[in-house]
Amino acid sequence: MRNEAQISYTSGASTVQLLGRTIGEVLDDVTARFGDREALVETFTGRRWTFTQLHREAEKLAIGLQQLGIRAGDRVGIWSPNGAEWVFTQYATAMLGAILVNVNPAYRTHELDYVVKQSGMSLLVSAERFRSSDYRAMVEEIGFADVLYIGSAQWGELMAAADDQPFRGPDVPLGFDDPINIQYTSGTTGFPKGATLTHHNIVNNGFFVGEGISYTEADRVCLPVPLYHCFGMVMGILGAHTHGAAIVLPAPVFEAAATLEAVQAERCTSLYGVPTMFIAELALDSFSTFDLSSLRTGIMAGSTCPVEVMERVIAEMHMTEVAICYGMTETSPVSTMTSATDDIAARTQTIGRVMPHLEVKIVDQDGHVVPVGEPGELCTRGYSVMLGYWDDAEKTAEVIDAARWMHTGDIARMDANSRLEIIGRLKDMVIRGGENIYPREIEEFLYRHPNIADVQVIGVPDDKYGEELMAWVIMRAGAAPLSVDDIREFAAGKLTHFKVPRYVHVVESFPMTVTGKIRKVEMREQAIAMLAGI
Ligand code: AMP
Known about the structure:
single chain, alpha/beta, 2 domains, 24% strand, globular
């Protein structure tokens, strides 16, 4: 598909129609078609459900929630690590038309209190505790009383009472354009904003992600990514279930060995992960002992997917059809993905092409579409764009323009074949003495140094140039720390002088979010404190 106009605009043509269904209707359909097939497995407890059984558990919980007074449009929070009850809650709320509010299990009282109030939450479905997280104590600390604890006596009673009752449906007719999910997202910066998504947004995004990696009812998807994030609940749960495929949950939170054990034991055909998860799996001492031959495909997404990691996943994990997806919570999430029929370079070095029925364009600072090959901000339009941020018209207007384009804040480039590449984030862009510098370019360059295991580049304030570059470097095991002079020597003649970092900081690890994103804001704060101390 050549881009004849040579401008950075593309739309996803497809002969497959969008689904005009609510999430509940999708589960009804798939249960009618594949009722006896497995839908959900928890390898860490051994529990498993067919579609018929999962459908019934969701109905029972929906009946229970109705008894607690939940109606269409009410906000119901879910605060728990991964587990089957998370999935029951996702479907039960969708059947009622209640809006599921995903609460990050890593949140603590301050953030919990904020999202409970900001969303106007009627009920919180919560884990009681997990490892060092005492969820019950935190809920009590903020004084929120309307809570249903997973696995509690109350939970058991509600489910038992619903056992012989038919589900009578929601209190009002539901439409697929109704909001059904609020996903709080702060990316790596700022206070959480509640991206509000409809049935139509996430049913279709899940469905077309599943189409993109050719799911059928024979697929079994190993899901180590968190369910509270769209990677888990949309690309995972809805992506698989819209095709009758099964979901295998290997652990409540990511564990590399448990993930590969689950793939082996359940003969999974697909495995998801952010790049750091695949890196951790490949680095296991026991890696070669796992039988991963059942794997066919999977998805790597969430942040830049290093070429070397993609190559190893294809060669050593049998994931010959693995795809890279790119997107963000506000766009349900996926906007572009690679295809198994692309050549290896396109599959490892780009984020692929625009998804069916969506549009992508790259614009300059004035909002003009740039020529092919030039960097600019990636914008997405179409069925996937959120309704807006919950109860925040002002923040919504900052990111969605009058023509309904979502401005992602990601800097990308499009080639003549309409393939895209992410270069960095607008917010990460460093301006040094008037030159725009994309840290990603310098990171890719330094990554080639034989003693560097990983590297991140940030901008730090500078009196003379406005900003200067600082590289944070993780050394390979046994390698001596690199100095600024070493870096300068390595870059000599290869990088423009202003792209050579002025400061080098050797660390053991980078500050990171649960979803595998490097917290550059935190790095910058630490760097500023460090420089002030010099
Ligand atoms: P979130 O809303 O948490 O899913 O974060 C979305 C952000 O993650 C995007 O705006 C990108 O900056 C980043 N991201 C997601 N997928 C990719 C990818 N495949 N390559 C590079 N960055 C990505």
